[in-house]
Design brief:
The protein has 527 residues and is of the alpha+beta class. Helices cover 61% and strands 9% of the residues. It has 2 domains: 249 residues, no CATH class; 162 residues, Beta-Lactamase. The chain has 19 helices and 9 strands. A 5-stranded mixed beta sheet has the order 7-8-5-6-9. A two-stranded antiparallel ribbon has the order 1-2. The longest helix is centred in the N-terminal third of the chain and has 28 residues. It starts with a helix and ends with a strand. The C terminus is likely disordered.
């Protein structure tokens, strides 16, 4: 026990000494986090605090291994597993540190996170199976993917939560404390040494990182802490052959893990880049609710300590009790989401509306398939008059009240260029409703490749609460595209076949009048 306390104290002192020195070095070398609209801090701050944590962690382990001759210190052996674990840690720390000095793209950082996780995997840190309640899940060849996902999840969880002074470092310290305590209870002294060294380095850094912070973790520091928690939990679980130590960080770091999983979902729903940083994380939501930075941090501290304590109880409960606890935790998570207004834009109305739009676009509804059939008929028109008759039928199907097409002379030449107008309903009633402003009027050019063929004008009476209005704009856009493509085809053909533009009668009482020279006359149908 004395050796473990000693390594904690050594790591703590080293961190207290190295952190301010590295803060000044970071400012000189340009590793600075400048304020912007996404940041909470208001002055440029060094972002190389991860170097202090890494150096304090490694130096404390080296000092105890070299100068302490006890049965506990003898456990520190630089074997293959430890070597590969440290190599992976240095890889993810290194890419994060480079990003602290020169901003890198998310893809590059993600690839190096995978590389560091791969080093740990080939060193023997593998998640081969997990016990959940009465189930034993054996991953087999999927072990590599599960292991890499575990590392990447924790690396980015600590990185995402590092948005307020002292938040990421504080949560990591609590996780190290409880995981170290669990290791002591299980007599896993090697794990207790590692967690003591990491906890001391983090606590010493927290002295300067708590609000108002004079130094930040940076990506290097947050990557290292996330990687270390993930790696040590796997090592402890391999030794105990229970997987219990993996449950503690999974529950204890519930807040950052929760945010890490929800953030890409939120960005996907909002149409944003999945990996672009934003200001909508849980800690930002607390600030928006009117809390100060310190209060928001203390609230998340309290939640994390409670989750860590519960996780210790959880590993000693029976399977039925574990299931009940997880259900309670899931319900509490839903309540927290609602209280933080995290997904206010997801309501039952929006979800059902999205599903309706999806089924309409997929052609599941009969109405959509019927409209698609009419589009195909419009596209198959052999002349302008046939096109016009099918446009009218389609307009009636989507409950339009008026349609007109005015053709551009330059597109078809001077051979009998018509203009068409169609109205559905009583003209007097239409004028009254139009005067009252209850008409929607859409006027779009029928154009392609810089050539304008016609002007398409559509009008519709707006009736509140009718299902016909929901997809009318989508239908109009589909109709415009179809008419554009068909007119382009007919315009090209009309140059060689002028008879396509000749006046003719159609069986559904549609009549057309040709232009005489440049004198415009229109086809006017009232149904």
């Amino acid at each position: 026990m004395s050796t473990i306390l000693a390594i904690f104290a050594i790591s703590l002192v080293l961190s207290l000494v190295l952190t301010p020195l590295l803060a000044r070095l970071g400012l000189k070398l340009g590793a600075v986090d400048s304020p912007d609209e996404r940041k909470v801090h208001t002055r440029p701050t060094a972002r190389c605090g991860g170097m202090a944590i890494v150096l304090s962690f490694l130096l404390s382990l080296a000092i105890v291994s070299l100068f302490f001759k006890t049965s506990v210190s003898d456990l520190l052996v630089f074997d293959r597993q430890t070597a590969f674990m440290l190599l992976g840690a240095l890889i993810v720390f290194g890419i994060g540190l480079v990003d602290d000095f020169h901003r890198l793209g998310s893809t590059i950082k993600f690839l190096f996170q995978i590389l560091g996780s791969t080093m740990a995997f080939f060193g023997g840190l593998q998640i081969g199976q997990v016990s959940i309640l009465d189930l034993n899940l054996h991953f087999g060849i999927m072990s590599y993917l599960v292991t890499v996902f575990w590392f990447v999840l924790f690396i980015n969880a600590v990185n995402l939560i590092d948005g307020l002074d002292g938040l990421a470092a504080g949560i990591t310290f609590f996780a190290c404390f409880f995981m170290g305590l669990f290791a002591l209870l299980k007599q896993d002294l090697l794990m207790a040494i590692f967690f003591a060294a990491l906890g001391g380095a983090t606590l010493g850094f927290l002295r300067y990182n708590f609000n108002p912070a004079t130094i930040f973790l940076g990506d290097g520091g947050s990557y290292f802490l996330g990687y270390s928690i993930a790696a040590l939990s796997i090592i402890g679980s391999i030794k105990s052959q229970m997987g219990s130590l993996m449950l503690i960080p999974l529950v204890g770091l519930g807040v950052p893990l929760f945010d890490t999983i929800l953030s890409p979902i939120r960005r996907f729903i909002m149409g944003s880049d999945l990996f672009n940083p934003d200001k909508s994380h849980i800690h930002h939501r607390l600030i928006e609710m009117g809390l100060s930075t310190r209060k928001a941090v203390w609230i998340i501290y309290g939640i994390s300590v409670a989750l860590c304590a519960f996780s210790l109880l959880l590993v000693n409960l029976h399977d039925e009790q574990v299931g009940l606890f997880l259900i309670v935790l899931a319900v509490a998570s839903v309540v927290v989401i609602r209280k933080l207004h995290y997904f206010d834009y997801i309501t039952s109305e929006k979800i059902f509306g999205w599903l309706k739009d999806l089924t309409d676009e997929a052609g599941i509804k009969r109405d959509r398939r019927t409209f698609l059939s009419m589009q195909m008929q419009v596209a198959a028109s052999q002349n302008l008059y046939q096109l016009w008759g099918r446009v009218i039928q389609t307009a009636g199907k989507i409950h339009l009240n008026a349609v007109s097409i005015e053709l551009h002379p330059e597109a078809f030449g001077d051979n009998a260029l018509p203009a068409f107008t169609w109205e559905n309903g009583d003209q007097g009633q239409r004028k009254t409703m139009e005067k009252d402003g209850r008409y929607m009027r859409v006027e779009v050019p029928i154009a392609s490749n810089g050539t304008t063929y016609a002007i398409l004008q559509l009008r519709k009476l707006i009736k509140q609460g009718t299902t016909n209005d929901r997809f009318v704009l989508n239908r109009i856009e589909h109709l415009r595209r179809t008419v554009t493509g068909t007119m382009q085809k007919l315009a090209i053909r009309s140059l060689t076949c002028p008879e396509l533009l000749q006046d003719r009668r159609h069986p559904d009482n549609h009549t057309a009048h040709a232009w005489n020279g440049h004198e415009r006359r229109s086809l006017h149908i009232l149904q």
